[in-house]
Amino acid sequence: MKNIPYKIYLDEAEMPKAWYNLRADMKNKPAPLLHPATLQPLTAEELSTVFCKELAAQELDDTTAYIAIPQEIHDYYKTFRPSPLVRAYNLEKHLQTPAKIYYKFEGNNTSGSHKLNSAIAQAYYAKKQGLKGVTTETGAGQWGTALSMACAYFGLDCKVFMVKVSYEQKPFRREVMRTYGAEVTPSPSMQTAVGRKILQEHPGTTGSLGCAISEAVEVAALDPSYRYVLGSVLNQVLLHQSVIGLETKAALDKYGVKADIVIGCAGGGSNLGGLIAPFMGEKLRGEADYRIIAVEPASCPSFTRGKYAYDFCDTGMICPLAKMYTLGSGFIPSPNHAGGLRFHGMSTTLSQLYHDGLMEAVAVDQLSVFQAAEEFARVEGILPAPESSHAIRAAMDEAIRCKETGEEKTIVFGLTGTGYFDMYAYEAFHDGKMTDSIPTDQELAQGLSGLPKVD
Amino acid sequence: MKNIPYKIYLDEAEMPKAWYNLRADMKNKPAPLLHPATLQPLTAEELSTVFCKELAAQELDDTTAYIAIPQEIHDYYKTFRPSPLVRAYNLEKHLQTPAKIYYKFEGNNTSGSHKLNSAIAQAYYAKKQGLKGVTTETGAGQWGTALSMACAYFGLDCKVFMVKVSYEQKPFRREVMRTYGAEVTPSPSMQTAVGRKILQEHPGTTGSLGCAISEAVEVAALDPSYRYVLGSVLNQVLLHQSVIGLETKAALDKYGVKADIVIGCAGGGSNLGGLIAPFMGEKLRGEADYRIIAVEPASCPSFTRGKYAYDFCDTGMICPLAKMYTLGSGFIPSPNHAGGLRFHGMSTTLSQLYHDGLMEAVAVDQLSVFQAAEEFARVEGILPAPESSHAIRAAMDEAIRCKETGEEKTIVFGLTGTGYFDMYAYEAFHDGKMTDSIPTDQELAQGLSGLPKVD
Do the Cβ atoms of B7 and A108 come within 8 Å? Predict the structure, then answer.
């Protein structure tokens, strides 16, 4: 076996030329999205009123295995990709484990996360369709930042509705978006009917993701030169994010390394679905076997304690219904610093795979996640995002198990981003003020009691 | 010529094995540091009471051209180096210039800047000498962060005195340091005699870099198991930073590219001295010619409007005297968002080279710097630090000149870091609240009137 460097960078020529559409290899396809009024599967035409035409097609396409990456997107990918696949020599040494640990680091771009992989694709299709701009919502701010960057590159207007509490608590995130020319509005706002209604009913509200989604959708719906875009959950997003897994696999193959375990954090599923895509593909085609592990916060355990059922994707219940592992669209997770993992449901593709026993899931508590994050930062240098640190926790746990059993397993995990804009969370951790709140069975039952009735 | 990718990454095996000591090739050596009491050149023994022994030796060595990088440091370099040399295709297109623009990006590590190159070296020598820890001061926080990371890696205590106003305004920087286990104290503090004295005299003071230096030096001086370390100005720092220039040169050579102009921002000189080292070396040996340009803020113009003379390195006048371009140790630059460029003096090595006409210098005003920063961010993706943006401004100006003359010059500049922790400055820029204040001739004369009398 070749000598493995600390960081494996593919050459530009080795970068993937096509996205891999995992659904094409699934025997049991993910269940279709349903129209919230008719409860009938959404058609391409219906989807095209909300999403760009080509994105709507990608959303529904579950047969084409490889979809070419347009040259313009590939060119932009070259400005921040390939991302490094890092051999965690220092972490291995620190844990005294015989396991070999690798992580794919997606944080080396200004958005600080993997979100840019899909943002640039969605902006490209919007531009190609001749649109003037796009609207979206953002909570933690990673998606909003990524979309702002993508829109600046293609000269599109970008309207971001940022949950008011984040807008006020994270002024730096807001300023990064403004640097890229985005219009950032604290939500709820007076700009939309839904915003005005909420402000009238709850004058002091600090907003919610559900409300911000509704505002972004309303603005896009009222202007035919705009479309709404979303950074996770959707099939199209998982498709674009497959570039993470494809690069990871190519880098491992280049050095003759076979993964045993692939681990990713899971909120809506954008990172996990992208990272595992080619590995799961081999598994589905019977070419190789892998343990694939989704890691979620114990405070928002959709896989490990949720129900596989049709549910609304938003709290306002205006968006389509998806069949997914869900805690109920009315479930409010306890305050948790991993904002990107607080979604009540999960990608339909990942939900189907989990339901079919093709992947595992673990839930980890917040304190142990930050302990792992700090240990990782000190030995590997990189300061991880709270979301990414869920995967670190699970990878470290597997590596520690290898130490106990003496197994030399190869563990690959996704390090989705950096924590530079999450230092208030680290501060709470350092000051001993961090808590975690695991929902009771009763709280979960209450969240699930509101599931819509769909046959 | 080979097809040049967006990002040139050297292989791990191509990384420099030795630092390049520019002074060895200088006919006119930089003037020695003088003892503040005796005004005699400092000996290695005297320096060793403040600095680690090997670092004191490096400080004085102006004859050894190459100094091997110890294996432990090289191993750590591999975790965040080689850094990419980026071909700025998008910026070239945006400016419609025939110039070829390259930048060496040092921001892809948690400290967010090039400071880690020297921090890890200084921590290594402290560990090797059997010390318990090191002390330092930090203003903007990049150096303090880098040193915290390096100390965590080698298991050293790290005591950082952070200027109180920064400590309060930049709690995130402080938290990053705490994540790496550093003890961060707002300065002035009650921990030191000098701190107590200042607090008694000026109860409401928000501190200054000069005061923080004094506190850090005092703590190290009183405990023989500690030494004081510094992130810029010194010869040893420029030596370690030569890794930037060596990688840059190796990457250009690999693709058969010859630079015409090399540009770097200059505060104390750590980045500029490192970036230009091998280019200046060729120039000194008569092997090649380059235009080498230092860029400084118009609000703190030590090269362009300062005097070449012996001066104190700190406002407290307790540190050694250095012969350098200076505005006077009592000069207080107007508030400027590029904290790393607000030093009143300049590295002795760079000062000598400038004095000998081997390099040029330009001063740029803050508003034009942020205009360049935002343009750069939008087309190249990376959000630059205010300091780095001075180099961007000058590089863009040169590229625009090439457009006017039709010359296809190759411009290389140093992009020292990211601006994630400087968003308050971008906010001021976006809100139209940014100003710049260029000192009057009278103000400069006043600063220079306090220069010490040294023959």
Answer: no
Alpha helix (H) residue ranges in A381-440? 386-405, 423-430
- Nearest partner of A292 among A198, A206, A218, A358, judged by Cα: A358
Structure tokens at A57: 């097609």
Q: Residue type for A162, please?
A: M
Q: Are A106 and A114 in contact (CB under 8 A)?
A: yes
For residues B252 and B278, the answer to whether their CB atoms sit within 8 Å is no
Closest C-alpha to B187, from B179, B177, B197: B197
Kindly state the tokens that stand for B202.
């000026």
Say yes or no for a CB contact (<8 Å) between B176 and A152.
no
Give the torsion through C-alpha atoms of A180, A182, A187, A188, to 10 deg. 170
CB neighbours of B26 closer than 8 A, spacing ≥ 6? B62, B284, B349, B352, B353
pTM over 0.90: yes
DSSP A102: E
Q: Cβ of A11: how many Cβ atoms within 10 Å?
A: 10
**Angstrom distance (rounded) from CA A13 to CA B6:** 11
Residues of B in contact with A420 (CB under 8 A): 112, 172, 176, 420-421
Q: Minimal CA–CA distance to B100: which of B83, B110, B119, B87?
A: B87
Give the distance from residue B123's alpha carbon to the nearest chain A alpha carbon, in angstroms. Answer: 14
Residue listed under structure tokens 């295709």: B89
Distances (CA, A) of A182 to A137, A174, A175, A185, B378: 12, 9, 9, 10, 11
Instruction: Return the closest-CA partner of residue B129 out of B21, B46, B55.
Output: B55
Calculate the CA dihedral of residues B110, B113, B116, B119 and round it to 10 degrees. Answer: -120
Structure tokens at A338: 């991993």
B175 shares contact with chain A (CB less than 8 Å):
yes
Helices (H), A27-83: 44-48, 53-60, 71-80
Beta-carbon separation of A426 and B180 below 8 A: no
Closest CB from B149, B172, B181 relative to A381? B149
Which residues of A, range 392-451, sit inside 8 Å of B by Cβ?
418, 420-421, 423-424, 426-427, 430
Which residue of A74, A179, A426 is the best one to mutate when testing the B interface, meaning the one whose CB has the most B CBs within 10 A? Answer: A179
CA dist list (Å): A345 to A304, A330, B185, B332: 12, 11, 44, 56
Q: Which of B142, B423, B424, B426 to mutate to test the interface with A (most CBs of A within 10 A)?
A: B423
pLDDT by 10s per residue, chain A, length 455: 578 999 999 999 999 999 999 999 999 999 999 998 899 999 999 999 989 999 999 999 999 999 999 999 999 999 999 999 999 999 999 999 999 999 999 999 999 999 999 999 999 999 999 999 999 999 889 999 999 999 999 999 999 999 898 888 888 999 999 999 999 999 999 999 989 998 999 888 888 877 888 899 999 999 999 999 999 999 999 999 999 999 999 999 999 999 999 999 999 999 999 999 999 999 999 999 999 999 999 999 999 999 999 998 876 677 889 999 999 988 877 777 777 888 889 999 999 999 999 999 999 999 999 999 999 999 999 999 999 999 999 999 999 999 999 999 999 999 999 999 899 899 999 999 998 889 999 999 999 998 998 86
Size of interface A-B (CB pairs under 8 A): 120
Contacting B residues, span 68-107, partner chain A, CB-CB under 8 Å: 78-80, 90
| Residues A9 and A84: beta-carbon distance below 8 Å | yes
A203's CB contacts (< 8 A; 6+ apart) are none
Per DSSP, what are the bridge partners of residue A364?
A297
Predicted ipTM > 0.90: yes
Backbone angles phi, psi at B34, to 5 degrees: -110, 145
**Dihedral sign (CA A263, A264, A268, A269):** negative
